[in-house]
Every structure is written in structure tokens, then in C-alpha cells.
């Protein structure tokens, strides 16, 4: 099964108590704006670091590196809610904002140092914690988004979550399946 993944990533999962409201947000976008592709509503997460497909050969090593530095995130809380996007003038990705402790940056930097060999292309964009909801890269999706931007922003602004970081998960992802298949491979408790 691992060989069916196109990439891997390390993330903080959104707690179970918020999955229903995340699914409601995704379903509302799907029902109202079917031209806008959304993420899998069952695996909301805050991505910490992307890994290449080649990482699969060393998942035990990767997990051990995460275990070594997990204490950086101990006793930390994140706040999630509100609309934001990558690409201000011409948005590409719609996401929920994340208010996060500076320790999240430290954690990401240490991962970047110890896992550089497995660094995925997206890591070069800079670390900006977020919870992805939808993509508007396609011209039709972009057109729909621009026409209904204020209504979509209102949907995002209804989300307000605060929770402690209690676990980290290494996910396997297959971007050939839409919405992208994301399966937890390994769980690290903080």
C-alpha cells in the first residue's frame, strides 16, 4: 500500500471534535460551488513538512527524527479560523488561517535540517502554517471564486477552533486520486 503514495507529509491533525465542522465547510463549498475542488473532508490537518515519494524507504528514520524533537511542541496551542489564500491577486489555494506559537517555526526548521534529503519541492515556498480547504488554480474555479468571494470568505470566517498540539502524524498522500487520498502512516504522541 505504501508504494501507492505520491508523497508524504508530517502534520498536526485537527482534533476529532472539529472534523464535523470542517466537513460541513467542505460540503458547503462542494454543494454551492462544484467547480471549486476541495480537499478530503475526513483528514483536516496543519502541515508541518512535505516529504518526497522517496521518503517511503526511510519512514522509520523519519519517525525517529520527529520523535527526537517533538518536545518543541509540548504545551503549545494553535488557533484556527478565518479566510486566507495563497496568491492574493490571483488566489491558487484557499485555506483557514492558523495562529500558531513560534515553536512551530522552530520545529519546521529542525525538520528541514534533519530531513533535507527528503525535502519536497513545496518546502522551498517558505513555512506558512495553514489548513487547506480548496484549490482555485483552474480558470473556471478561479472565475467562480471571484464571483462569489465574499460568500466563500463568510463560510471560512465561521470556523473558530483552539486546541493544544497533542500529536503529530506522518501521512501518505496520493495526488492522483481526487480529492487527494491522505492516509495516516504513523502517529507520534506529544
Please tell me about this protein's structure.
Helices cover 31% and strands 30% of the residues. The protein has five helices and eight strands, in the order βαβαββαβααβββ. The strands form two sheets. A four-stranded antiparallel β-sheet has the order 2-1-7-8. The protein has a four-stranded antiparallel β-sheet with strand order 5-4-3-6. The radius of gyration is 16 Å and the shape is globular. The two termini are 27 Å apart.
Please bin the fraction of helical residues: 25-40%
Low-confidence stretches: none
Note the main sheet.
4 strands, antiparallel
| Count of DSSP strands | 8
Separate helix tally: 5
Quickly give the structural class.
Answer: alpha+beta
Measured on Cα atoms, how large is the radius of gyration?
A: 16 Å
Order of helices and strands: EHEHEEHEHHEEE
| Overall outline | globular
Q: Strand order, biggest sheet? A: 2-1-7-8
**Fraction in beta strands:** 25-35%
Distance between the termini: 27 Å
Mean pLDDT across the residues is 92
List keywords for this structure.
190 residues, alpha+beta, four-stranded antiparallel β-sheet
Summarize the structure.
The protein has 190 residues and is of the alpha+beta class. The protein has helices at residues 16-32, 59-69, 102-114, 139-147, 149-157, and strands at 7-13, 45-51, 77-86, 93-99, 131-135, 161-164, 167-174, 181-189.
Amino acid at each position: 500500500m505504501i508504494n501507492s503514495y505520491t508523497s508524504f507529509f508530517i502534520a498536526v491533525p485537527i482534533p476529532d471534535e472539529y472534523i464535523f465542522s470542517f466537513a460541513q465547510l467542505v460540503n458547503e463549498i462542494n454543494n454551492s460551488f462544484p467547480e471549486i475542488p476541495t480537499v478530503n473532508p475526513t483528514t483536516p490537518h496543519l502541515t508541518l513538512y512535505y516529504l518526497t515519494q522517496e521518503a517511503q524507504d526511510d519512514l522509520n528514520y523519519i519517525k525517529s527524527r520527529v520523535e527526537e524533537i517533538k518536545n518543541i511542541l509540548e504545551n503549545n496551542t494553535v488557533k484556527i479560523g478565518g479566510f486566507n489564500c495563497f496568491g492574493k491577486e490571483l488566489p491558487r489555494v484557499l485555506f483557514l488561517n492558523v495562529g500558531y506559537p513560534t515553536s512551530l517555526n522552530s520545529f519546521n526548521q529542525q525538520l528541514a535540517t534533519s530531513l533535507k534529503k527528503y525535502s519536497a519541492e513545496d518546502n522551498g515556498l517558505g513555512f506558512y502554517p495553514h489548513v487547506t480547504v480548496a484549490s482555485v488554480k483552474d480558470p473556471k474555479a478561479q472565475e467562480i471564486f471571484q464571483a462569489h468571494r465574499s460568500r466563500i470568505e463568510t463560510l471560512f470566517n465561521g470556523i473558530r477552533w483552539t486546541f493544544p498540539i497533542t500529536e503529530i502524524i506522518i501521512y501518505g498522500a496520493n495526488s492522483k486520486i481526487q480529492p487527494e487520498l491522505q492516509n495516516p502512516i504513523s502517529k507520534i504522541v506529544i
